[in-house]
Amino acid sequence: MSRSPRRPPQLRGRVFRGSHAISRGLLTRNDLRSSAWRPLFRDVYADAQLPVTHRTRCTAAGRWLIPAGAAIAGRSAAVLHGCAHTTFDDTVEVLVPRGRSAGPAAGLRVHRGPVDDGDIVDRAGTPVTSPERTCWDVASWLDLVEAVVVIDALLATGLTEVSTLRGYALARVGRRGWRAMLRAVDLADAGAESPQESRTRVRLVLAGLPRPRTQWVVSAHGRFLARVDLAWPEYRVAVEYDGRWHDDPGQFDADRRRLNRLVGSDWIVVHLTAKRLREDFDGFLAEVRAALRSRGHRPGTSRIPEQPAP
C-alpha cells in the first residue's frame, strides 16, 4: 500500500520556500516532489489543495524572487490592483530599476527602466507599480488595443483618472514612452465593463468611426428602455457584445427582450460575438458602418461630440 504524502500542518494552505521547509525538517526533497505540493517557481511551492491564481504567483514573486527596489509591474500589477484578467500560467511581469541585478527566473518576465519616486506602492506587503506607472508600462510594453484594455480597467476601479494619467505622461515629455501613454489614455474609457468591450470600442475608433458612448442608457418619454454596451445616440445605433449569458438561458432571454424594446424605438442594434471579434471583425465593421450610414453618418463628419475628459 502506497504511503500518503506528508502534509505538515504548518504548510497546509500556504505558499512557502522549499529550502526553508527542508531546513526546518518539515519536508525532504522527495516530499516536495509528491502530489501534495505544487511548484510555482524555483524553490517556491504551494499546497496543492490551495487554489493558485495569478495574484498568488505575483505575491510569491514579490516576496521571494525580485530584488530590493523592484516591483510587480504591467498586467501583473493590474491584477494586484484588482482589475485585470489573467490566467494561472501567465508570466509574472516585474520592473527592475536600471543598475539593479536580477537574474532570469522561469515564470518571470523582467523589464528594466528608470523608476521615479512614487512609482512603487505597497499592496498588502507586495511592491507593485502605482496605477499611473502601470499604465505607462502597459502602454510601452503592449500593443495599443491591449494597453487600453488594462487602462480602462484601472480607470474603472477609481484608483486613477484620465487627467492624472495625462499629467503623469506630460511630466515625462521626452522620455521614451510618453507619447504611447498619451495615445492610449486618449482612447481609454472608464465605462468599459469587460476586456472584450474595450477591444471592440478601440478597434472601431481606430478604424475611423466616431467614438461611441459606453454603457449608454436609452429612455423614451422618461421611461427606461435599456442600457447598451456601445452607442452612437445621435444616430440611434448601438453595439452589443454577446458573451455574458451563455451559461444563463434566463438572463439571455431577458437580454434579448431588452434589445427588442430598442428595435421598437427605432434603434439599430448590431451584435458581436467572441468568434466574430476574433475571426471576422472586418465583416462586423462593415455592418456597423452600414448602420451608421443608413442614419446619416458620413466619413469625416460626426454629430457626436468627443467623450468629455473626466
Q: What is the first-to-last residue Cα distance?
A: 67 Å
Number of domains: 3
Radius of gyration equals 24 Å
Sequence of secondary-structure elements: EHHEEHEHEEEEHHHHHEEEHEHH
| Beta-strand percent range | 15-25%
Kindly report the average pLDDT value: 90
Which shape, going by the Cα principal axes? elongated
Number of helices: 12
| Strand numbers in spatial order across the main sheet | 9-10-11-12
Specify the structural class.
alpha+beta
Number of separate strands: 12
Main sheet attributes: strand count, strand direction, barrel closure: 4 strands, mixed
Assembly state (oligomeric): single chain
Low-pLDDT residue spans = 303-310
Helix percent reads 25-40%
Summarize the structure.
With 310 residues, the chain is of the alpha+beta class. It has helices spanning 18-23, 29-32, 54-64, 74-80, 131-141, 144-157, 162-170, 178-187, 195-206, 249-264, 274-279, 281-294; strands at residues 15-17, 37-41, 44-47, 71-72, 92-97, 108-113, 120-123, 126-129, 213-220, 223-232, 237-242, 268-273. Helix 6 (144-157) packs across helix 8 (178-187).
Written account of the structure:
α6 (144-157) crosses α9. Helix content is 39%, strand content 21%. It has 310 residues and is an alpha+beta fold. The protein has twelve helices and twelve strands. It has three domains: 9-47, no CATH class; 55-187, no CATH class; 195-294, VSR Endonuclease (Endonuclease, Chain A). A four-stranded mixed β-sheet has the order 9-10-11-12, with helices on both faces. Strands 1-3-2 form a three-stranded antiparallel β-sheet. Strands 4-5-6 form a three-stranded mixed β-sheet.
